[in-house]
Amino acid sequence: MEAARTAPALVSIGSASRQTHFERIGGVEPITRLVERFYDRMDSLPEAQVIRSLHPADLTHVKLVLVAFLIEWMGGPKDYSAQRGHPRLRMRHMGFPVDAAARDAWMQCMRLAMEETIEDSGLRQQLEQAFFKTADFIRNQQESHHDHHR
Ligand code: HEM
Questions:
Q1: What is the DSSP string of 78-131?
Q2: Cα 93 to ligand 1 centroid, rounded to whole Å
Q3: Which of 6, 24, 54, 149 is found 20 to 30 A from 72 (Cα to Cα)?
Q4: In this structure, are residues 35 and 67 in contact, taking their beta carbons and an 8 Å threshold?
Q5: Could you give phi then psi for residue 6, rounded to 5 degrees?
Q6: 82-105: pLDDT as tens digits
Q7: Cα–Cα distance measured from residue 48 to residue 112, given in angstroms and rounded to the nearest whole number
Q8: Which residue among 89, 109, 110 is best mutated to probe the pocket of ligand 1, counting the most ligand atoms within 8 A of its Cβ?
Q9: Whether residue 93 has its Cβ less than 6 Å from ligand 1
């Protein structure tokens, strides 16, 4: 209520919502840096060892695909779909066991990569929420402590 009465807040909310995340992050180059830092974290964080082992030893191709996907996901050019078809991320991850721990490890790598490469903390928070929704949607395993109920 308080913020809604002040015109500058409305103006800045308005301009933020008209811009895509792709525009706000600054285009292809910052997304490339984000993905680079993300996989560096996956390579080095002990908590990420399990999800790192699901990926190929050479990450060159995976990096290029994630960059193309994120460009499109953030509202930029749709080269990913043109090259690889509809993302169908849940389906594409079905071959990999993704439980809550895997989701959280992925998010931890991404959160740290965002902290290193995105200055705008509001944008970081919005992207973190969007990443979490996607990561949780991809989850395809119940936690092991539920196993004895099956
Ligand atoms: C939740 C934990 C996640 C795990 C464990 C995981 C793991 C993986 C693995 C192992 C691959 C295959 C790499 C390869 O051999 O080509 C992959 C591909 C991919 N992942 Fe994830 N991922 C997760 C979450 C996400 C999220 C949240 C996104 C997007 C925001 C995402 C986007 C992608 C994309 C775009 C591909 C390539 C799909 C294609 O082949 O076109 N992943 N992921």
A1: -HHHHHH-S--HHHHTTTS---HHHHHHHHHHHHHHHHHH---HHHHHHHHHHH
A2: 6
A3: 54
A4: yes
A5: -100, 120
A6: 999 999 999 999 999 999 999 999
A7: 12
A8: 89
A9: yes
Residue 75, phi-psi category: left (phi > 0), alpha (psi -120 to 50), beta (remainder) = left
99-124 pLDDT, tens digit per residue, is 999 999 999 999 999 999 999 999 99
> Of how many residues is the chain composed?
150
- Angle of the 28-44 helix axis to the 100-117 helix axis, nearest 10: 130
With tokens 């560096």, the residue in question is: 40
The response to whether residue 96 sits with its C-beta less than 6 Å from ligand 1 reads yes
Measured from the CB, is residue 39 less than 6 Å from ligand 1?
A: no
Residue with tokens 């060159």: 60
Side-chain-side CA neighbours of 104 within 13 Å: the count stands at: 6
